[in-house]
Amino acid sequence: MTDPLQAVREFILGRNPKLGQVPDELDLIDSRAINSLAFVEFIFLLEELTGEPIDPEDVDLDDFRTLNAIEARFFKRKAAR
User: Fold this and answer.
1) Which of 46, 58, 65, 71 is the most exposed place for a label (fewest CB within 10 A)?
2) Are the C-beta atoms of residues 12 and 27 closer than 8 Å to each other?
3) InterPro entries, alphabetically (predicted)?
4) Tens digit of pLDDT for each residue in 23-75?
5) Helices H / strands E in the chain, number of each
6) What is the pLDDT of residue 77?
7) Do the Cβ atoms of 28 and 12 come closer than 8 Å?
8) Which residue blocks in the chain are alpha helix, DSSP H?
9) Rounded to 5°, angle at Cα 80 from 75 and 81
């Protein structure tokens, strides 16, 4: 299986090729690497990668701010189960 965090990186780079790379601590919101137009698509990607729906009532913008935050919220929590 493909590394889910790598799929997230590819999604971001696919929409922001000028970045060249996505550092783990890059603020994806402030840098506009994920903008409001791509955010819904990004949620769908995370749902696909985790196999679980994401309830908008249960998310905090900080969960999407960096790759480290995304990994902790969506991938490490699932692995710990």
Assistant:
1) 58
2) no
3) ACP-like_sf
4) 999 999 999 999 988 999 999 999 999 999 999 888 899 999 999 999 999 99
5) 4, 0
6) 65
7) yes
8) 4-15, 36-50, 67-70, 77-80
9) 105
